[in-house]
Specification:
This protein is an alpha+beta fold. Helix content is 48%, strand content 12%. The protein has 11 helices and 7 strands. Strands 4-3-6-5 form a 4-stranded antiparallel β-sheet. Helix 2 crosses helix 3, helix 3 crosses helix 6 and helix 4 packs across helix 6. It is elongated, with a radius of gyration of 24 Å. The N terminus is likely disordered.
Length: 328
């Protein structure tokens, strides 16, 4: 389950899941470099948890149980208003929504702490006016929380201030890292089509078989009396996805075919390395659509740029999490 609403709600930034990868090597022998040892994580409490117990250590930065509980309350308050408290027991197969939520909250907290540590190292923080503005918003928000809820969830004015301030610093770090992305986007390249997209994944072991299946799907559509969306859902049990495909898409065959389509037409089957695609064109190369594609593309580039930077930052800090917290 994604918790973007939680992140927006606490004034944080939308941070994508951290991508773990390996850097490519050149054909030359790599230069041997001494890598600094990661900052050791603060000791965490693995016994009975109290409000001031340390439940997460990000390098030498400590996260108390009360701070974790405030983040957790933000999430619960958001979703229990829409559903009920029973949502946390819903089984996702190997875990419950509640257990998954704990992991998401921890991931968010760790990201915020890493970004704040990096910000401190780069001399990036809140100015006097910025801090006053953030604290004012924190006070306004704190005033909406009843004393009973505060007591039950370990919520204090100081805790709310800290969370709001750290999330604002993290947002500033995100802006610093991704600030040049938009300026490097060529406006003339922003051509796009909005399509209903069907994708059949394939590899070298089954490409011929999969291609025949999607070709048959395309051919049979000619005899269908309804629309393409209903047809695909009826035939496959899964609705086609609505996507904006543009000129800078890494799937160049798909992008070329999409941009060549006319409105309300069906494409030929398009072959890409990851499989086969079929598209129904809803709109093509309008001013509004191209603007939407530009925003989508910039957001994607910003996300990749941030993830690359964050991966390097995260390697500097050892992380520990309380076993007692994970057992909840």
């Amino acid at each position: 389950m994604k918790h973007n609403k939680l992140k927006r709600m606490i004034g944080g930034i939308l941070i994508g899941a951290m991508v773990i990868g390996t850097a490519g090597c050149s054909e030359e022998e790599p230069v041997q470099k001494e890598v600094p040892k990661a900052e050791r994580a603060a000791k965490v409490n693995n016994g009975e948890l109290q409000g001031d117990s340390t439940v997460v250590g990000v390098g030498n930065t400590k996260v108390s149980y009360d701070e974790y509980r405030i983040y957790s309350w933000f999430l619960k308050n958001q979703y229990e208003d829409l559903m009920s408290a029973d949502v946390w027991n819903y089984n996702l197969g190997t875990t419950t929504i509640g257990q998954s939520a704990i992991e998401d909250i921890l991931r968010l907290i760790i990201q915020i702490k890493v970004m704040n540590k990096e910000a401190a190292g780069q001399g990036i923080g809140l100015g006097v006016d910025e801090k006053e503005d953030v604290d004012y918003k924190a006070d306004q928000y704190f005033a909406t929380i009843s004393p009973e809820i505060q007591e039950e969830n370990g919520i204090t004015a100081a805790g709310i201030h800290q969370i709001f301030e750290e999330n604002e610093v993290a947002r500033k770090m995100y802006d610093v890292v991704t600030g040049n992305v938009e300026a490097n986007v060529d406006e003339a390249s922003m051509q796009a089509a909005k399509v209903l997209l069907v994708f059949y994944p394939a590899d070298d072991s089954n490409r011929t078989e999969v291609q025949m299946q999607i070709e048959a799907l395309k051919t049979e559509f000619g005899n269908y009396k309804g629309n393409f969306y209903s047809y695909v859902k009826d035939k496959t049990g899964k609705a086609p996805s609505e996507e904006i495909i543009g000129k800078l898409d890494s799937r160049q065959n798909l992008a070329g075919a999409a941009l060549a389509m006319k409105k309300y037409t069906l494409s030929e089957v398009v072959s890409e390395q990851d499989g086969f695609y079929l598209m129904y064109c809803l709109k093509n190369n309008t001013k509004g659509l191209n603007k939407a594609y530009r925003e989508q593309y910039i957001a994607g580039q910003q996300n990749m740029t941030f993830q690359a930077a964050y991966e390097n930052w995260a390697e500097k800090y050892e992380v520990k999490v309380s076993k007692s917290l994970l057992a909840n």
